[in-house]
Amino acid sequence: MKVTDPVCKMTIDSEKAAAKSDYKGQTYYFCNPGCKAKFDQDPQKYASK
């Protein structure tokens, strides 16, 4: 499934995502661990977009 990295807005395949986080019952997928780290520091900033 195609998803958008909430940090950098890159379109990625959820099956091949480098990392993922769960926040408020939703799973977010990331193109690399750096984007996941930014998300994990302030998930509300990125989840609301």
Report on the structure:
The protein has 49 residues and is α+β, with helices and mostly antiparallel strands. The protein has one domain. The chain has helices at residues 33-41, 43-47, and strands at 2-4, 11-13, 19-23, 26-30. Strand 3 (19-23) and strand 4 (26-30) form a beta hairpin. The longest helix is centred in the C-terminal third of the chain and has 9 residues, at 33-41.
How far is the first residue's CA from the last residue's CA?
19 Å
Alpha plus pi helix count: 2
Q: How many beta strands in the DSSP annotation?
A: 4
Helical content, roughly?
25-40%
Secondary structure category: alpha+beta
Report Rg.
9 Å
> Strand count, sense and closure of the main sheet?
2 strands, antiparallel
Note the run of SSEs as H and E: EEEEHH
Low-confidence stretches: none
User: How large is the share of residues in beta strands?
Assistant: 25-35%
Q: Indicate the mean pLDDT.
A: 96
Q: Give the strand line-up of the largest sheet.
A: 1-2
Indicate how many domains the architecture comprises: 1
- Overall 3D shape: globular
Which key terms come to mind for this protein?
49 residues, alpha+beta, two-stranded antiparallel ribbon, two-stranded antiparallel sheet, 4 strands, 33% strand, globular
What is the secondary structure topology, with strand pairs?
Elements: E1 2-4, E2 11-13, E3 19-23, E4 26-30, H1 33-41, H2 43-47
Antiparallel strand pairs: 1-2, 3-4
